[in-house]
Design a protein that fits this description.
Structural class: alpha+beta
Largest sheet: 4 strands, antiparallel
Helix content: 55-70%
Strand content: 5-15%
């Protein structure tokens, strides 16, 4: 087997393994099985092939072959558009929608993971071509470990303190402690909230957390994930039971209320803590001089 073929083969295998490893599903069960999984594994194989071929092509002075990487970037952007359109269609049939910010974050993730596959296969192919398969596989493994670290993001627990809270009514107005949530006129709705409703308060650790949790898309993502995990006491025609998060303007604290199917408050708190922080919502005002000055 020639050195070129060996480098390509090792790069393709390691890149495809990396994409398979990144295909882990959680409680959201997305990508769905089997069709979406097959689609993304096939795209991962193509990305791995493009990354693996680049090194032998450059070594053979076939510099035009590298333009395939530019073509791959175009195709991966199409992956992002495909995911966005599909999730927007699916979002119309959910009781508690993800929201456009959450959908855009998922679509961006699927695009980026193909670039990470190209990186893994490129490193594997390079070291296999220069040395031998063993250093190539080792380089690919190190690249996968680097990718794993790169994929880590923040969770809500990293930006706010989440604690149980009491909900109550003042006339028709529903409050979580001192945070006004909404107006509910019917007495029977009041009784359901008082009996089954659960509430938490999200208190930012610092000014960064305050601005992140102020993002409407981030709050919608929290409502979606909590409703998915605990269930929600509503149907298509009962909008009054939609989970809501409202902000106290004076302090930046956020109150959340939901009428869950599973009313365990500890599970509720844990579900909120483990919601990912959206890339579109993440801001860091404290890195600026003005932000630090305002926080003093």
């Amino acid at each position: 087997m020639t050195k070129d073929i060996l480098a390509i083969l090792c790069g393709v295998v390691m890149g495809t393994v990396a994409r398979s490893w990144m295909m882990r599903r959680d409680f959201r069960q997305y990508p769905s099985y089997p069709h979406a999984v097959v689609t993304h594994l096939a795209l991962g194989f193509i990305a791995a092939t493009l990354g693996a071929v680049a090194v032998p092509a450059i070594a053979a002075k076939e510099y035009t072959a590298v333009t395939f990487l530019a073509l791959a970037a175009t195709q991966f952007r199409d992956v992002r558009s495909m995911e966005r359109q599909m999730l927007e269609s699916l979002d119309q049939s959910t009781l508690v929608s993800r929201g456009p910010d959450f959908i855009e974050g998922i679509a961006r993730t699927f695009e980026a993971r193909n670039y990470l596959v190209v990186f893994v296969s490129l490193m594997t192919s390079l070291f296999t071509f220069l040395y031998s398969p063993l250093p190539g596989i080792l380089a690919g493994t190190i690249a996968i470990a680097f990718v794993r670290r790169f994929m880590r993001g923040y969770l809500v627990r990293n930006i706010v303190k989440v604690r149980p809270a009491k909900l109550h009514f003042e006339g028709p107005n529903l409050f979580v402690e001192d945070i006004h949530i909404m107006n509910l006129a019917l007495r029977e709705i009041h009784e359901i909230y008082e009996k089954l409703g659960r509430a938490v308060i999200l208190e930012p650790w610092d000014d960064n957390g305050r601005e992140i949790i102020a993002n409407v898309g981030q709050r919608q993502a929290i409502a979606h994930d909590v409703a998915l995990l605990l269930g929600v006491h509503r149907d298509v025609d009962t909008a009054e039971f939609t989970p809501l998060l409202r902000r106290k303007l004076d302090t930046g604290r956020v109150g959340m209320v939901i009428v869950p199917i599973e009313p365990d408050i500890e599970c509720f708190v844990e579900a909120v803590k483990n919601v990912p922080v959206l890339e579109s919502a993440y801001v860091n005002p404290l890195v600026s001089r003005a932000g630090r000055c305002a926080a003093d």
